[in-house]
Amino acid sequence: MKFLFDDESFSFEALRAAGFANYGGADLGEVIATARNIAEGDEEGWHRAWKATAERVEAIGRQSLADGHRVSAREALLRASNYYRTAEFFLRENPATDQEVTLLSSRSRDTFAAAAGLFDTPVEAVAIPYESTALPGYLFLVDDSGTPRPTVVYTSGYDSTLEESYFAIAAAALRRGYNVLAFDGPGQGAALREQRLVFRPDWEAVTVPVIDYALGRPEIADDKIALFGYSLGGYLVARGAAFDHRIAALILDDGVHDFHAAFERMLPPVLYRWIEEERDDVANPVMAMLATASTQVRWALRNGVWAMGAASFADLVRMSRRYTLAGSADRITAPTLIMDAENDQFFKGQAAEVEKALTNAPTRLVTLTEAEGAGEHCHMGAMGRAHQVMFDWLDSTLPTGLPRVA
């Protein structure tokens, strides 16, 4: 779905930013006006334009707050958070040391935190014990009654953040009587940027302490916990569910069976063979050349080296082999909704592979289409339609007797 740009990656990221308008994360006019100032494929122009919009909208929010206009402040600060995240997105040349990455990501977090403090429903910033540290998170609650409620645990993906969780799932969940526990895991958001934690394929090492934490919260119904995986999170939560059977349901948005296959599809066969043969002296220079010609390839490789702690592009591709459900999918027993996007440019065909592999779990595979505006990866631009499918399924899948909002 072409949206504002011919460049496929710019088009998708603009659609992603605009799609959060469903839940107050964007104004369409602001998105269009920002895009007008960005030339095709100009990553620095993208950064400048989105940062300028974010700063302008944040200033509106801060002034509204100072003047006592709570709702106006909340709405502007939510939009600013999304725009700061978007401004940071393509800054991947040296993200670990780039002070602009640090600045924009911290502003995205700060503006979201300020907005969350103005919500009509309770939001608590939490720290989830993990190994020798703690993972940052939010617990979004339906109300302050303390009633144990069904709860969705959000796991983000290859580039998404804790703050994005509100638009991706929490706002829709709260409207339907579900709490949401969201966090940044290794390789994601502040856990990567501030704590320098990188991705790991054995995501059960993350899922187990997160579920431990959830079970210690009185507001969360122990037998009504659903895992929700967003983008690469579709692999991560499935892997976690294979080794932790305390969850009642699993939602994969979208289904990912083999992350390595995405790189294999992206690269020419001869280059892929050099990588497999560990001829990195040849493979890395060629990959660098490919990266100069494609925004999507350049971003995917640079982001992956950073987020996965790889030594090089070729090392990243080999590391991705470990991110597969082969050998563990048959251990998943929870009822599973597998979302699929007709035109998924990253994981096409993967959702069907997941359904085939989940031999011991009740599954439902739903493909949303281009014709209904929901055919992009994670159904960007069609959040309402995607959430309708997810929560209608979850309502009928979790144990009966769910408490509902009055």
Automatic annotation (TrEMBL):
A GO MF label: catalytic activity
Protein name according to UniProt: AB hydrolase-1 domain-containing protein
AB hydrolase-1 domain segment(s): 169-381
One Pfam family here: Abhydrolase_6
Sequence similarity: Belongs to the AB hydrolase superfamily. FUS2 hydrolase family.
Organism (species): Streptomyces malaysiensis
Organism superkingdom: Bacteria
